[in-house]
Design goal:
2 domains; alpha+beta; single chain; 237 residues; Beta-Lactamase
């Protein structure tokens, strides 16, 4: 009985310690959740401010700042991308295919469509050329109206390793980016241009400039350009 009593007492003590740790973990979890909620709210507020600022800037365009230059270059690149996608369609590639097929064993999940291979062959060289001409940007890509990104820059089109944390950053091609309001708006809007501020799935905060792409007068998707918000406040090079 003494041994049983001692065991019960020890179990009670251990249970109290565990309960205390659980409470601490629960408190920490709530704190983290609160911080994440605050961060998300801050990004949303910043996004609205960014859109408003772009609206104001459009009335006072000087062509001298790096942001003005970025917009002008984006309009040129959009035409290049549209022309190439148009050529692919004339060659028989179904660039409007939405029958996205899941690629087995991929995490994050990848998909292939009728135009995936053509984009990997024809669009990546254009992506690399555009990025060279726009050194301030992190990406300058074409995404269809459903958020499908068949090809990415070469540095972010690496084969999957099986490590989701690594692949999230280095294997971003063949993915559908349509999980939040920013990603949805950038590929579905038909305004002249749209700039948003958002937090990527990598945790990085970026400005995302998007211009609609039309193929045979039909809305295909968008040119999307990601860059550090600091570019907004720097002068011309």
């Amino acid at each position: 009985l003494m041994k049983i009593a001692a065991a019960i007492e020890e179990l009670s003590t251990n249970n109290s310690e565990i309960t205390g740790k659980v409470v601490s973990i629960n408190t920490l979890t709530k704190d983290v959740a609160k911080e994440m909620e605050t961060s998300s709210a801050s990004v949303t507020t910043l996004n609205r401010a960014t859109e408003k600022m772009l609206e104001m800037v459009s009335f006072f365009k000087t062509g001298e700042g790096r942001f003005d230059q970025l917009i002008e270059k984006a309009q040129e690149v959009r035409l290049v991308y549209e022309k190439k996608i148009q050529q692919l369609r004339k060659q028989g590639v179904n660039v409007f295919d939405t029958n996205y097929q899941k690629v087995a064993g991929t995490n994050p999940q990848k998909h292939v469509a009728a135009f995936t291979k053509a984009f990997e062959t024809e669009m990546i060289p254009l992506y690399e050329a555009a990025k060279t001409q726009m050194p301030d940007v992190i990406y300058v890509l074409a995404v269809d109206r459903n958020g499908y990104l068949p090809a990415h820059h070469a540095a972010f089109s690496q084969p999957m390793t099986g490590n989701p944390a690594h692949d999230l950053i280095h294997s971003r091609h063949q993915r559908i980016f349509f999980s939040n309001e920013t990603e949805k708006r950038r590929c579905t809007h038909t305004e002249n241009l749209l700039m948003q501020t958002y937090m990527r799935d990598t945790g990085q905060i970026l400005n995302d400039l998007s211009l609609p792409i039309y193929i045979d007068e039909r809305h295909w998707g968008a040119l999307i350009i990601g860059f550090d918000p600091k570019v907004m406040f720097t002068g011309s090079k």
